[in-house]
């Protein structure tokens, strides 16, 4: 297979990112999109609560026989491969077949693919179905990106790639933005990364430009994480404060705290 050439990256204009993110957050709160999350059991509650905190609505059914109906009734699909089992695998295949037919954008979160050859194979099968966005950590993205470069994967798969970690990088192969917000406490609570994928699903539901949606969602999550960490006493209170921070977040918070380049 010939790998498409990777263009030189174009940095985002930081001044334009913050009002765009604030505008999309306001639209989520106004339009209340429903997002169907096929996520792992450990992430169900936090993902649902993060969506509710920003004004979106979660849908969580993983029944292979009815999942197409739920995808049809929602505005975006989030697929998370954590704790994968045969029933969820069947539901994921049915949902990702239905999503493009129904005109629903979908996100792939390839959890722990670096640890399992069979899961990597399944994730490659899903990548061929052209998700609008792939969100993963450095180890997960490196399984599919030559040299670990997210831009290589974005060009080869024809998608937007968000590599999250101490700083987040979002690229479609041509445009690239790096978001330096967040807190170490985000890694001390189970499924915060999975919940970030769910949040990105809410932004994909209302914004056809997947790159803009991903940058906005990760900026919102990162700033909320910083605000939550400032009030938290540890991981337990951080999880609660994160939901409160997302609920209260406004454009001023993004402008004052956002670090994008």
Detail the topology: elements first, then pairings:
Blueprint: E1 10-11, H1 14-31, E2 34-38, H2 44-53, E3 57-59, H3 67-72, E4 76-80, H4 86-102, E5 106-109, H5 117-127, E6 133-137, H6 138-142, H7 150-157, E7 160-164, E8 168-171, E9 175-179, H8 192-206, H9 210-231, H10 235-248, H11 251-257
What does this entry show, briefly?
The protein is of the alpha/beta class and 261 residues long. The chain has helices spanning 14-31, 44-53, 67-72, 86-102, 117-127, 138-142, 150-157, 192-206, 210-231, 235-248, 251-257, and strands at 10-11, 34-38, 57-59, 76-80, 106-109, 133-137, 160-164, 168-171, 175-179.
Descriptive report:
There is one protein chain. The protein is α/β, with parallel strands linked by helices and 261 residues long. It has one domain (19-254): Ribokinase (UDP-N-acetylmuramoyl-L-alanine:D-glutamate ligase, 3-Layer(aba) Sandwich), CATH 3.40.1190. It contains 11 helices and 9 strands. Strands 1-9-8-7-6-5-4-2-3 form a 9-stranded mixed β-sheet, sandwiched between helices. A hairpin with a 3-residue loop joins β7 and β8. α2 runs parallel beside α10 (235-248). The longest helix has 22 residues, at 210-231. The protein is globular and about 45 Å long. The model has no long low-confidence stretch (mean pLDDT 95).
- CATH architecture annotation: 3-Layer(aba) Sandwich
> CATH class, please?
Alpha Beta
Main beta sheet: strand number and arrangement? 9 strands, mixed
Q: Which oligomeric form is depicted?
A: single chain
Strand order of the largest sheet: 1-9-8-7-6-5-4-2-3
Strand content: 5-15%
Gyration radius from CA atoms, angstroms: 17 Å
Structurally, how many domains make up the residues?
A: 1
- Provide the residue-averaged pLDDT: 95
The residue ranges in which pLDDT falls below 50 over 5 or more consecutive positions are: none
Number of helices: 11
CATH topology name: UDP-N-acetylmuramoyl-L-alanine:D-glutamate ligase
CATH superfamily: Ribokinase
N/C terminus separation:
33 Å
Shape designation: globular
InterPro entries: Hyethyz_kinase, Ribokinase-like
Cofactor: Mg(2+)
Organism: Benzoatithermus flavus
Catalytic activity: 5-(2-hydroxyethyl)-4-methylthiazole + ATP = 4-methyl-5-(2-phosphooxyethyl)-thiazole + ADP + H(+)
């Amino acid at each position: 297979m010939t790998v498409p050439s990777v263009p030189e990256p174009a940095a985002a204009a930081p001044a334009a990112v913050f009002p765009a993110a604030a505008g999309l957050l306001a639209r989520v709160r106004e339009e209340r999109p429903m997002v169907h999350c096929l996520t792992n059991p450990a992430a169900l509650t936090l993902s649902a609560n993060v969506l509710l905190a920003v004004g979106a609505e979660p849908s969580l059914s993983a029944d292979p026989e009815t999942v197409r109906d739920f995808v049809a009734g929602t505005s975006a699909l989030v697929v998370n491969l954590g704790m994968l089992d045969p029933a969820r695998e069947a539901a994921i295949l049915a949902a990702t077949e239905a999503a493009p037919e129904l005109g629903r954008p979908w996100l792939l979160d390839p959890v722990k693919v670096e640890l399992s050859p069979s899961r990597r194979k399944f994730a490659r099968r899903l990548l061929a179905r052209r998700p609008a966005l792939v969100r993963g950590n450095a180890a997960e993205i490196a399984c599919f990106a030559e040299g670990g470069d997210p831009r290589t994967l974005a060009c080869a798969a024809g998608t937007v790639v968000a590599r999250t970690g101490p700083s987040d990088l979002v690229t479609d192969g041509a445009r690239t933005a790096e978001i330096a917000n967040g807190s170490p406490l985000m890694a001390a609570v189970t499924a915060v990364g999975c919940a970030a994928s769910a949040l990105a699903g809410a932004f994909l539901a209302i914004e056809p430009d997947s790159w803009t949606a991903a940058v906005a969602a990760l900026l919102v999550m990162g700033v909320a994480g910083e605000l939550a960490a400032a009030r938290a006493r540890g991981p337990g209170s951080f999880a609660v404060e994160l939901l409160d921070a997302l609920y209260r977040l406004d454009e001023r918070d993004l402008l004052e705290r956002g670090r994008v380049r």
